[in-house]
Amino acid sequence: MKGTKPLTIESIDVDNDCELDALMIQVLAEGDKVYQAQREESLRLGIIDEKGRLLLDGLASGGDTPLTPDFWRELKKDAAQILARKKRPRKRRSAR
Questions:
Q1: DSSP assignment, residue 4?
Q2: Nearest to 7 by CA among 66, 88, 72, 16
Q3: Residue ranges per structural domain of the chain
């Protein structure tokens, strides 16, 4: 499908089985790419082993954190601050 425009639900005739199948194949292929990238990242971080088994050592090293409403509010606030920092334009260095 290289060189062709990606299909969307708006761009196909949903009554046409061939077009619907092509869209489904495209969606599943993209999902496979995302899955593979997440798996590779989990391997790199030591979260799972080569067979996909969860490595609990890294997860069990911290203390238990109660998942209270305050926890979720604080987590949301922290995430918003990180996102705001990433959206700020970076200062350019002057050429020397």
A1: S
A2: 16
A3: 17-87
